[in-house]
Every structure is written in C-alpha cells, then in structure tokens.
Amino acid sequence: MTRLNAPALVLLAASWALAAQAQPAEPVALEASRDYLLGATLSSGRDPLGTSEQRLRLRPIWAFQLGRLRFATSGASALLAQGRESVDSGVSTVLTRSDRVSLSTSLSIDEGRSWRDDPVYAGLPRVRDTVRGRVTAGLTLGPRWSGSLRASQDLLGREGGLRIDSGLNYRHPVSAQTHWDLSLGLGWANGTYHQTHYGIAPAAAAATGLQAYGLGSGFDGLSLGWRITSALNRRWVAYGGLSAYQLQGAVARSPLVTRSTTFGATLGLAYRND
Length: 274
Known about the structure:
The chain is mainly beta and 274 residues long. The protein has one domain (6-223, 232-272): monomeric porin ompg (Porin, Beta Barrel), CATH 2.40.160. It is 15% helix and 46% strand. The model is unreliable at 1-33 and 81-85 (pLDDT under 50).
C-alpha cells in the first residue's frame, strides 16, 4: 500500500493557490453552486481500528442542489459552503439562517463496518449500515471565526446511537479566489454508539478469544485540520489539506484500537457550472 507524502501535498496545494493569484482575472467568489459539482479527491488515511495500514484512495465527489435540498458527498459538501454556512453531506436543507446563526437538517448513510478481511478481528460481528438524521447549528463568531454543533441519531434502530460533534473554525482569506481554514473538533457519543463501534460483547469475545470490553457515554475524539481552497477560475476549484485525529478516554483503550492517533491528507479538483 502506498504512503502519501504529506509535505508534497501541502506544496502542491500551495502551488494551486499561487497559480490562481498569478493569473489576472476577475474575482471568483467561493459560493454555492446552484446546479451541480463534479470532481475527484485523492486521500491518504488510516483507520484507528483493526490492523489496516495507511491507504491511498482515489474516489469521485459530486454535489447538486434542487430547490432547498442539497445532495453532496463528504468531499464536495465543503465546496458548496456559502460564506460561513455549515453544509452537511448526504441530503440536507437549511431550516433557518441569519447573519449570525444557521440551522440545518440532513440525512446520511452510515456504512457501518465489516471485519471480514481483518486477520485478527475477522470473527467479530458486522456493524450494520444505517441512516443517520442530523441537526446542525452554525454560529458566526467574528469576521474570521465560526463554530458549529451537530447532533446525529441512528434512525433505523440498528444500535447506531447518538453522536454530538462540535467545531471551531478560523478562515484566513489569501485573496478573493483563495482561503485557508484551520479547524478544531471535539466529539461525544452515548453508550450505545460506543459499544457498537468500539466495544466487544461477551458472546463475541467468547467466539474470537478477544477480551470483552464495555463502554459508556463520553467524549471520544479530538480533531485538528488545515485546508486550502482556491477557485482556479469560474468553474474549477482545487483544494488540499492535512488532518490529525486522536481518540480519547475509554474509546482509546478499546482492544479494537491499534493506533489512537491517525493522520490524513487530501487533494481534490472539482468542476462546477456557473
């Protein structure tokens, strides 16, 4: 499996930004595409659970808007952000919005987890796919600062539980076409979510020989990310970023966790209509 050179990613993303500034052109605002966006993202990351290694993946991203409904993959959702508005992946709509506060709701598919190909944890039961409903509140704290609070709940009763994620974001405009964001996140989940994703039930422990492990509710993760986004022209948008994620508390001590701190890098290029 290929390891991604993180410094090279930063240099390439910065070169995109410089190229956008070097070409004289009218300012291109990074506003929401009203019709569609298509692109691809190249990412490097590692699952903190199981025995997987750092992996390099290329996948498509897309987004489109129909009336008040927005449909977007996780990589494309940020490119639909208008100003400081928080946009969720999946199907979303804004319930209310003012100069300082926004409230939106969304539905997304949680793909769960299969241990089938893991040589150590293959006997554990699959975490079932489910649909999560989310409510997100965004708050503009200043010209460059914003915050968000998101609650997501398993809607199909598949032991997906409840998650609450909070975030603080600083945005630095480089030019009318380019900005970079520095974000900090903190996550909390209830016992149902933790037991499903990080716990080992006694029956599963007996079947696999692993140690049984039970968890309750609590804070479970800290994230730090940096991302640069640049409109190369009116239709093409490029971005790149680096991220770090650290599991906390009882979750970090789970027998399923093989690395409590993970790092990631992303590059993307997308086309959007006017």
